[in-house]
């Protein structure tokens, strides 16, 4: 069955979002204007406002999509018949693949700067993000239920595990402009994080 053609209004909306992402990345939040977004998207300013009442709402949408892409990138159902270290390595490699994407890091840097500059603007979106469960936390919850990990708050343990990765593959890139990790470095970070995590939590 052929895919139904996308409506013109949907194509325009996607073009606006793509243009906004590019402008926020290259110019930052304050210097980005709805006029410039409209020009880059190839639509009228009125069309931009028909889809997004304000720059703040457009930015909030991009923040939410950024977070969703981070969560969606980590998806691995727990397997009772596989070693824990094999599964966790696969999870962390998915995470490291995302963190190695220069576009993701650039946009995360813009988002982080704006959250720090205007925390009230990002408060609602951050709260919605906190209501979701990431793939790592879901995996940990399943492993606990299977009796292979110690009883622990899955969210707490998930933050610990991802913190071991982000301290090398996210924060240095976002805050200090370091280059993404090379493949060998990613492997080293993932393997050491898994060893430390299972060394403490494995039953």
UniProtKB/TrEMBL annotation:
Q: Where is the HTH tetR-type domain?
A: 10-70
Q: Does the keyword Ribonucleoprotein apply?
A: no
Please list the residue ranges the record marks as binding DNA: 33-52
List, alphabetically, the InterPro entries matched: DNA-bd_HTH_TetR-type_CS, Homeodomain-like_sf, HTH-type_TetR-like_transc_reg, HTH_TetR, Tet_transcr_reg_TetR-rel_C_sf, TetR_C_Proteobacteria
GO molecular function ontology, one term from the record: transcription cis-regulatory region binding
Coiled-coil ranges (or none): none
Query: Could you tell me the keywords of this UniProt record?
Result: DNA-binding, Transcription, Transcription regulation
Q: Does the keyword Metal-binding apply?
A: no
Protein name per Swiss-Prot or TrEMBL: TetR/AcrR family transcriptional regulator
Which organism encodes this protein?
Stenotrophomonas lactitubi
Taxonomy, top ranks, is: Bacteria, Pseudomonadati, Pseudomonadota, Gammaproteobacteria, Lysobacterales
